[in-house]
TrEMBL record:
Pfam families: GST_C, GST_N_3
PANTHER family given in the database record: GLUTATHIONE S-TRANSFERASE OMEGA, PTHR43968
GST C-terminal domain span: 94-218
Single GO term (MF): glutathione transferase activity
Protein name as annotated: Glutathione transferase
Cited PROSITE patterns: GST_CTER
UniProt keyword list: Transferase
Gene Ontology CC terms, in alphabetical order: cytoplasm
Annotated CDD domains: GST_C_5 (cd03196)
EC numbers on record: 2.5.1.18
Keyword Cell inner membrane: no
Amino acid sequence: MAIPILYSLQNCPYAMRARMAIFRANQSVLIRAIKLDNKPQAMLLASAKGSVPVLVVATENKPRSMMVIEESLEVMLWALSQRDEDNLLRTDEADALPIMVSLITHFEYDFIPAFNAYSCAKRYHEDNVIECRQACEVYLQALEERLTRHTFMYAEQESLMDIALLPFLRKFARIDKQWFRQSPYPKLRTWLNHYLQSRMFSKVMEKHELWLDNYKDIYFG
């Protein structure tokens, strides 16, 4: 069977979590690193949305038929449905996956706009930076409370929810590193540092040559 193709951008949080799931699922893909100002025509033909990640999978027994997965959470679910040795999907719990997907989706819908406002306010030294950060803290407090109840975001064991939220919380922590180090979220810091120091994170964040520079096949996973 043809190896799936993943179009990716190194520091995009959505692409990062797709790569994390592929890594944790022990899946092998051909990774095509892109730049947003020079997108490959092959990617745009597969997905008109023009953003990453995009995963192109040959349909089983139909080599010329392709399945295109355009949303990062869907890429994660596809990868882990192939292989999930660490039970990140919590398949032993009947309602765990829909609950996690709902929590992840609500977090994205609410936190990411607040995060983007805070990031812009900090970058451009706007007067409302503290108010923007406080809007984000509502969600940080909720996560801190979850981590007070158990070691990981969803339960005592690691799950899909952890690696789905990780790239966004990493990006938030980098906006004002000094503030985050002193912030009243010790559980969240410990959780984040656990991942940032992991082999998974090092592997997922390896820099790859841009595919359009030489059209070289680079394997990931």
